[in-house]
Amino acid sequence: MEAQKNRMIITVLGNDQIGIIAWIANRLAEFNVNILDISQTILQEFFTMIMIVDLSPSKTAAANLGKILAEEGKQRGLQVNIQHEDVFAYMHRI
Amino acid sequence: MKITFAPDEILQTIEMVVNEHLDIRTITMGISLLDCVDSIQRMEQKIYDKISRKAERLVAVGSTLESRYGIPIINKRVAVTPVGMIASHLKPAETVRIAKVLDRAAANIGINFIGGFSALVQKGCTTGDLNLIDHIAEALAETEYVCSSVNIGSTKAGINMDAVLKMGQVILEAAQRTADRDGIAAAKLVVFCNAPEDNPFMAGAFHGVGEPECVINVGVSGPGVVASVVKKHPQADFGELANLIKRTVFKITRMGELIGRAASAELAVPFGIVDLSLAPTPAIGDSVADILESMGLERCGTHGTTAALALLNDAVKKGGAMASSHVGGLSGAFIPVSEDAGMVRAVEDGALTLDKLEAMTCVCSVGLDMIALPGDVSAETLAAIIADEAAIGMINKKTTAVRLIPAIGKKAGDRVEFGGLLGGAPVMRLHPFSSAAFVRRGGRIPAPITGLTN
């Protein structure tokens, strides 16, 4: 576990619509969060966007950012999760 | 920086948390109180100060980790040195003051429960143990966060039947003192055989004698995740089924390992163990009974249930053991009644009886847990139930426990409600025949030949 690295994985799930990436990229820029990679697919009939971001340049805590994105996402019918990458490394890699 | 995880891996994790109730049930900090022994007033101050100092940031760190990893952490708890060990010099009634100071310290740091109002009396009681046991009912009735446990037997020592009878009386008194709240005090009291010293789960957590000054133990939970994978594979044969469960539990346990290590680093306290128990909650879909029924049983408790539970419990251990550097505590599937909506339904439908539950405890962790009994139950009958369960633990070299709640003023078929994680349950039927002459014989049941391992 490397707590000093602050890479988080943001996932956005829901019905496809115009402006999802624009919205989330803008919000992340406002919070000074650097996007490292984006992938987008339609999985199980759902729009699925997975984004890896670096929170270290930002002054915003993950909890705060997660709350804002989850609330704004909900208004658009999207489910937004933000989790530290270690969760996936621990669960899916030995 | 490329995304190195497949989308379906990421989605699987999110599915587990969002839809299948994967959570970290508890981060429990163990704190030694051995250095707090003093005259009662100074002892109260020392205990309060030490718990407040050591666990000051426990709740805040829990919340930070929750948002960093996106995994709910349901409870933050503290376990302390068994109070019976540090109470021998106190006047009998002063042990209640220790319970009250534990309660105040728990309220001060904002935790959910504090465990360790406990005694280890498998071979006999010290003055402190006796004082404590005599005041458990009063202490639990007059505190909110305090949990109590008493270890009355072990494979090495046998079963202390004097203590067993006493605990029958204590359970009854605890329920009577809180009869207006459906006997809630009895829900915070566990009677153990072979109690583990590093168990993070309540009500049985205490900070054992072999433990360091301060330690972090983590309990994971995920019956919903396991039930979901079992449901998705109705055709799998038993070998395949066990493998699916192992793989799933591996993933669940990794979350416990991650949170435990992170909490340990943040709090600068050594990491003890991950307890890989499957701990249900009253929420629909977070049920161990549901897993057993998903394996093909019409109702939990019917013929085949013990075999299904044995498979589940073993696969949980095998999957979890590789996922964590240190596994400990109770580590197995829990089968409480009131805390598991599927178990409650099975009892209501007449599929699950006390006798079947007892059989099930032979193959899983932990014992007869959160079971409401008719209010007119005698202390001797409660003691006999404890003795049966302790005998299973003693002979099979495993932990067994009893957490029974006499529902004062109620009879078999009525309902009790405890609320929150404790849930609610129908009152279960008992055998009408007396065990009084048996449990009143007194003395100890000798340690079994299986205990002579040297």
Describe the structure.
The complex is a heterodimer of chains A (94) and B (454). Chain A is α+β, with helices and mostly antiparallel strands. Chain A has a single domain (7-92), classed as Alpha-Beta Plaits (2-Layer Sandwich), CATH 3.30.70. Chain A is 35% helix and 36% strand. A four-stranded antiparallel beta sheet of chain A has the order 2-3-1-4. In chain A, a hairpin with a 2-residue loop joins strand 2 (34-43) and strand 3 (46-54). Chain A is globular, with a radius of gyration of 13 Å. Chain A starts with 6 loop residues before the first strand and ends with a helix. In chain A, 35% of the residues are buried. The model of chain A has no long low-confidence stretch (mean pLDDT 87). Chain B is of the alpha/beta class and 454 residues long. Chain B has a domain at 220-246 and 279-447: Anaerobic Ribonucleotide-triphosphate Reductase Large Chain. Chain B has 15 helices and 13 strands. In chain B, the strands form two sheets. In chain B, strands 1, 2, 3, 4, 5, 6, 7, 8, 9, 10 and 13 form an eleven-stranded mixed beta sheet that branches. A two-stranded antiparallel sheet of chain B has the order 11-12. The relative contact order of chain B is 0.13. Classes of the chains: A alpha+beta (94), B alpha/beta (454).
| Proportion of beta-strand residues of chain B | 15-25%
Number of strands of chain B: 13
Level-1 CATH class name of the domain at 220-246 and 279-447 in chain B: Alpha Beta
Helix content class of chain A: 25-40%
**Main pleated sheet of chain B:** 11 strands, mixed
Kindly report the spatial arrangement of strands forming the biggest sheet of chain A: 2-3-1-4
Return the string of H and E elements of chain B: HEHHEHEHEEHHEEHHEHHHHEHEEEHE
**Would you identify the CATH architecture of the domain at 220-246 and 279-447 in chain B?**
Alpha-Beta Barrel
| Helicity of chain B, as a percent range | 40-55%
